[in-house]
Amino acid sequence: MSFRLGVIAAGSALMLATGCRDAASPRPADPGTRVSAWVPDSAAVLAHEYYSGLANETRAVVADAESWATTWAQVYANRQPQPVRPEVDFATDRVLVVALGQRGTGGFDIGVDSVVQFPASTVVYVRTVAPGQGCITTQALTQPVQLVRLPEPLAPFAFQERSVVRDCP
Questions:
Q1: Domain ranges across the chain
Q2: CA distance 51 to 48
Q3: Once rounded to an integer, what is the mean pLDDT over residues 22-50?
Q4: How much is the pTM?
């Protein structure tokens, strides 16, 4: 995806994320002028699983090799042999971990829509998906998770959620 399309997609994601509030919801603090926006492509996604070892909801930033090894082992705790852990250069990159936690059926998903850098912080926009009316889902426990390699942005990080219910015909 070209940089221009990435910026347009990130801007759209930002508008959707901030525009989908009810009147009673508090407005988030103004983080300032956007410095940059990034939308992960398929090369940035290190893993996207529906049956993981992360039973609890998680939003985290992995910044060192030891934490990365621990996180990978937790994600793939239920799979033997575990897939080979991708190399990450933590001098220049970070790994975003977004896990939905355990759900009673299939049809749930989670992912990073975009990452927006502001002068003093970075906001990670996370999309969660739940099955809606008419959806036929697997009746198995699922633990959706996504791991994304991110070029080192400005800390601190904040995660902003957008929930979607996907109805089925």
A1: 3-20+35-166
A2: 9
A3: 76
A4: 0.80
